[in-house]
Design a protein that fits this description.
single chain; 326 residues; alpha+beta; 5-stranded antiparallel beta sheet; 24% strand
């Protein structure tokens, strides 16, 4: 069963207490106790070492696993009373007030957050009063996140206007959300009613979102293993060869690839696979003089045509505007 972000946070907080009382617990037993898969548990364990008792990162949870058992090496550090510096208390209060204003937050969670904030304000004294003069306004992605989180919690369908960079267009669709996850950016995995297939949507590309009354009913699907990243090319995907100069070497860091051969000028010849080669045209335009698509030939020609069209638009902006109007 899909869980929302708030439920996952609750589980991870409970997991800290559970592991403290059971040193060397078996992965299988812990996953069964929390009603999740072993892969989901390992994913939680990958996040916990990034958490701790200090915003400065000096007291992070030292938790690891060998795949069979889970070990927590510094549980006593977490047991010490939390002491916040003035800047830490201010940051925590501002963040708590901001989260409490998110649309779609369940009222019970909002009230619990407000009660905790009030206690922290009292304990912080003058710092708490000073923090009230600061505020945070979430960008549109925050509102989208809240709507998706609410839709998952209430098992309701969503309507989206979504920007597809591969096609450079906005599309409208109805989706049944499955889960939220973060891999560099925040994404929603959902069953798309238009394509009748599973799709992944990046939240910062959602132009408009609306919660529908229709119930969400995605088919029973096995959740994808994202431990190797969001993009996991298949050996059957078309092969693309890209050559980049020294300023384009970052492509090898951001795109999964088969090979990256050094070139005499300090660049790379990168071979990669993708189910949608046309999406790499935008990469070629972004690289400019620092890169080009070598093969397949039709994709290379397509990228060259797109570059010429872009340059022509700069040379004759009036003609470009009239062509867009048509």
């Amino acid at each position: 069963m899909a869980t929302n972000a708030i439920d996952q946070t609750r589980r991870m907080l409970s997991l800290v207490t559970y592991l403290r009382e059971r040193p060397g617990a078996h992965v299988q037993d812990v996953a069964r106790a929390f009603g999740i898969s072993e892969d989901e548990l390992i994913s939680d364990l990958d996040v916990l070492p990034m958490c701790g008792t200090s915003f400065r990162g000096g007291d992070l949870l030292d938790i690891d696993t060998d795949g069979d058992r889970i070990w927590w090496h510094n549980p006593d550090d977490v047991a010490e009373p939390l002491r916040l510096a003035a800047d830490e208390a201010t940051a925590l209060l501002v963040a708590a007030r901001a989260v409490a204003t998110l649309p779609g937050l369940r009222e019970s969670d909002r009230q619990a957050l407000l009660r905790a904030t009030a206690k922290l304000e009292t304990a912080a004294g003058e710092v708490g009063a000073a923090s009230s003069r600061l505020s945070v306004t979430f960008e549109s992605e925050g509102g989208v996140f809240a709507e998706v989180d609410r839709a998952i919690s209430e098992r309701r369908r969503l309507w989206l206007r979504y920007y597809s960079p591969a096609r450079d267009e906005l599309t409208e669709r109805e989706v049944d959300p499955i889960r939220l996850f973060a891999v560099g950016h925040t994404y929603m995995e959902a069953w798309c009613r238009s394509s009748e297939d599973r799709r992944t949507f990046r939240l910062d590309r959602v132009a408009e979102i609306r919660l529908l009354d229709a119930p969400a009913a995605p088919p029973e699907l096995e959740l994808r293993d994202l431990s190797a990243g969001l993009v996991q090319p298949s050996a059957q995907d078309p092969e693309v060869v890209v050559e980049v100069g020294p300023g384009g070497r970052w492509v090898a860091e951001y795109y999964p690839h088969d090979t990256a051969q050094e070139l005499p000028d300090g660049g790379l010849r990168i071979t990669l696979r993708t189910p949608d080669p046309a999406s790499l045209r935008r990469l070629a335009l972004r690289l400019g003089g620092e890169g080009r698509i070598v093969s397949p030939p039709d994709l290379a020609r397509s990228a060259q045509d797109a570059a010429r069209a872009a340059l022509a638009a700069y040379d004759d902006p009036v003609r470009a505007d009239s062509s867009r109007e048509k």
